[in-house]
Amino acid sequence: MQFILTGFTPDTGFRVFAFQGIHADKTRTTFTVRADLDLIRKYGIRVQELPLLCRGLLERRDEGATVRALSFTEEEMRLHANGIAADREAAQKKKSARRAPPRQSGAGWQSSSAVVARPVRG
Fold first, then answer.
1. Mean pLDDT over all residues of the chain?
2. N or C: which end of the chain has fewer CB within 10 A?
3. What is the mean pLDDT of residues 41-55?
4. Residue 98 domain-assigned?
5. Cβ of 88: how many Cβ atoms within 10 Å?
6. 73 lies in which domain range?
7. What does the CA dihedral 70, 4, 76, 47 come to, rounded to 10 degrees?
8. Which residues pair with 17 in a beta bridge?
9. Residue 66, in any domain of the structure
10. Does 34 map to a domain?
């Protein structure tokens, strides 16, 4: 099933995202995913990320499930935040593991302070 975001509505501390689920036979089913705005701040999730995270929640649900209204739970937010933190840590380790480029021999005598502009005479 493919999911298309059709919009969202604010609901006192929550944002409710509406999706159309398109089945293989082109029939459509409406789904909603509710996200707590206080919890996203707690876990460092940006509001701009919510539509994709909610769509991911819909994509991971069981195909045979009949539930059409879901919630982006605190546990799912925690898992997302932990995954982001692990990715950052791995990137930082990779960055710090890089070796410095080899020094070029003979390049030491050329420094930016040694370059002097001379007027062209003609």
1. 85
2. C
3. 95
4. no
5. 10
6. 2-78
7. -110
8. 8, 33
9. yes
10. yes
